[in-house]
Amino acid sequence: MTKELSDDVNDYLYKVLVVGDLATGKTSMIKRYVHGIFSRQYKATIGVDFALKVMNVNEKTIVRLQLWDIAGQERYGNMTRVYYKEAAGAFVVFDVTRPETFEGVKKWKQDIDSKVFLPNKKPIPVVLLANKVDLKPDGWGQTTQQMDEFCKEHRFCGWFPTSAKENLNIGTAAKFLVNQILNENISQAPQEEDVVDLTKNTNEIKKKGCC
């Protein structure tokens, strides 16, 4: 996670994980969000793939999301700790047409919480995505209240029903996660008294115990 300041514009780069069981539609969602396209012909991701999305949050804030598309089978391997390193946030995706992928959500969340942390040691923000809702227009067995309670119990920041085919809520979910990340970034910013003024002379700095 980096921050640069140029011409009064804050430019942030955040690594965001996209995880979930095999064939939950992670790659399709990323392709839709980053490139605006949808296809049923995507092959299963092997290991990890990457994509970059630039988001203009406002006139003074640009966020570059480095999306890590992590293969569903990786939860059973030993590489997730490497993949998760320095992540600022995550999406966990399940397929509403396959209830077993919803059960897998808990294990993905536990895996993330045990392996990656913010600088203040808090868990990174994680958003749950109920994908392929276009295939279940009459619902998939979970009410809004049940999903809200599930997210509260398992410490998700929130959840969204999504569809890569219909381009439903993917951008909205991304904006929500980015706001969560930015809020964490602000809360961890050094207080004014903690900032060393490098314009002061060396003697003054030494008196304050700085090396």
From TrEMBL:
The keyword Ligase is annotated on this UniProt entry: no
Keyword Membrane: yes
A Gene Ontology biological process term: phagosome-lysosome fusion
Localization annotation: Membrane
Membrane topology label: Lipid-anchor
Top-level taxon in the UniProt lineage: Eukaryota
Pfam families cross-referenced by the UniProt entry: Ras
Transmembrane segments: none
InterPro entries documented for this protein: P-loop_NTPase, Rab29/Rab38/Rab32, Small_GTP-bd, Small_GTPase
CDD domains attached to this UniProt entry: Rab32_Rab38 (cd04107)
GO CC annotation: late endosome; lysosome; membrane; phagocytic vesicle; trans-Golgi network
Single Gene Ontology MF annotation: GTPase activity
Keywords, in A-Z order: GTP-binding, Lipoprotein, Membrane, Nucleotide-binding, Prenylation
Family: Belongs to the small GTPase superfamily. Rab family.
NCBIfam families: small_GTP (TIGR00231)
Name of this chain's protein: Ras-related protein Rab
Lineage: Eukaryota, Metamonada, Anaeramoebidae, Anaeramoeba
